[in-house]
Amino acid sequence: MFEWLEEEMARIKTRKFHLVDGPAPAELRQAVESCKLPLPPSYKEFVLRFGNAELYRYSTNYYVTIFAGPREAENLDGEAFVQFGRTWTSYAYFRESLLVQSKESPVFESFQNGMRKTADGFDEWLKTKSIAARKRFKKVEWEAIEAGPTPFTDHERAVVAARKQFRWRVVGVAPNEDLRFEIHNGSAMTLPYLSVGIRGKMRPPKTGPLEGGGYLPTVSIHPGETRLLEYDCYKQFIAPEDTEVFELPEPGPEDREQYWEFKSSA
């Protein structure tokens, strides 16, 4: 049923463009097959074949996300729903009252302007969202995604090694609600920025928890130095006490645009 996706994934040489767990281990397979909810067959097949999935990466986000374990949602419009995924602009659900054993079920999506049916079944929904996601990439961009990124240069490898030697911690809150960071450069070179992850409890109404990134300006922190700096961590959306800053994983060549360590400080 999802051969088209497997074929697409096989053509793409860019790591992390499609992130999937892979075939379900025995424990997950048993949980899916014995689930009390009569989940649609196409959704169950997807989960058993791919597990959790994040598809069509753009910057640090993914256009389509599918959960291996459906999540019960609060009653929406007076009905009980089960969330199985999301897109950039919506959350995707099955309506519990319409779930029937071994039958497909309509997909509903909640947008900021309300809830509506968007597909007759999970397979149709995924194909439609995937087509829409691919259309967001220009032809030359898609060809580059399939070909994969060029390997790191010697300088870029040095940048990756240097960022491992930086140490930072949040040490307080400035009067303007920026977070205060203490940063130590333990490397042998200066970096223009240090990329970090930022997440918080809430975004603007109805859009859920926030998760993004920040780029701490470190060009003035020379090897061996420790400096304090202040940085706006989405303070217009989340209070400082509700903000968590976390380390990002080591970047690969496919992450050049997301990690500002590779950019010029000019």
Describe the overall structure.
The protein has helices spanning 3-11, 26-33, 41-50, 122-135, 139-147, 154-163; strands spanning 18-20, 53-58, 61-72, 81-87, 91-95, 107-111, 114-119, 166-173, 179-185, 193-200, 210-217, 226-231, 243-246. The strands form 3 sheets. A 7-stranded antiparallel beta sheet has the order 1-2-3-4-5-6-7. A 3-stranded antiparallel beta sheet has the order 8-9-12, with no helix packed on it. A 3-stranded antiparallel beta sheet has the order 11-10-13, with no helix packed on it. The protein has 266 residues and is of the alpha+beta class. It has 2 domains: 3-147, SMI1/KNR4-like, CATH 3.40.1580; 154-262, no CATH class. It starts with a helix and ends in a 20-residue tail after the last strand. The protein is built from 6 helices and 13 strands.
